[in-house]
Amino acid sequence: xxxxxxxxxxxxxxxxxxxxxxxxxxxxxxxxxxxxxxxxxxxxxxxxxxxxxxxxxxxxxxxxxxxxxxxxxxxxxxxxxxxxxxxxxxxxxxxxxxxxxxxxxxxxxxxxxxxxxxxxxxxxxxxxxxxxxxxxxxxxxxxxxxxxxxxxxxxxxxxxxxxxxxxxxxxxxxxxxxxxxxxxxxxxxxxxxxxxxxxxxxxxxxxxxxxxxxxxxxxxxxxxxxxxxxxxxxxxxxxxxxxxxxxxxxxxxxxxxxxxxxxxxxxxxxxxxxxxxxxxxxxxxxx
Length: 287
Known about the structure:
Elements: H1 3-21, H2 27-38, E1 46-52, H3 71-82, H4 94-105, E2 119-126, E3 137-143, E4 146-156, E5 159-169, E6 187-189, H5 192-195, E7 200-204, E8 218-220, E9 236-238, E10 244-246, H6 249-255, H7 268-282
Helix pairs in contact: 1-3, 2-3
């Protein structure tokens, strides 16, 4: 892919983000798009470290709009990454991607919301050292002194699907998902918190997968319209294969679309922060 084409595609990604989020992304949000999408291309998610021209390390704003971005944008970023093959036919090396992104970030075309003096350094590395969780792996997630259990349900174009168990446990050793009820709606996230050791793999049980939908869906609000798609009066659910299913008012209320409590996907960190609220909203009486 030529330099001109890469810049054009990156500008399109920025414009799509701006239209969806209501404003241009920060550098943090721009790089988060690539971090999330990299999980579909590389053997482990990419991590980004930025040095500004004054020599300071960049951290960016505390809040991020990336968890609210529609999956179509992540598909575009995945397509961009897959269009940068190396000589061996695989994905571009982190060094090649670094050069492309650094040049773009410092160009007039980027015009990011919070970086105006320029970036002097960008480091991209693949996370490693911890095996990525497999479908059926049970995870223990710490939340405010207690632990929740989740199970890996699938890996697909939406990300990693997790099933959440509703009960919290007082210690890591006490986490027993088979004694818990299953929240009705799975969520999509990444496995970066497992890779960095924050979430613990405590077991494996394929039988527990049956407590959740076999093909975890994502939901679309009726407020958002995309060419060729009808999300109906109350919203719609989309399967990993792209099938669209219109939902009724009861399902929209249950999943949280009509109340504004639903997110299509989460960063691992944001999912961890949201577990208490999700469990309260989605808890169902029968396992």
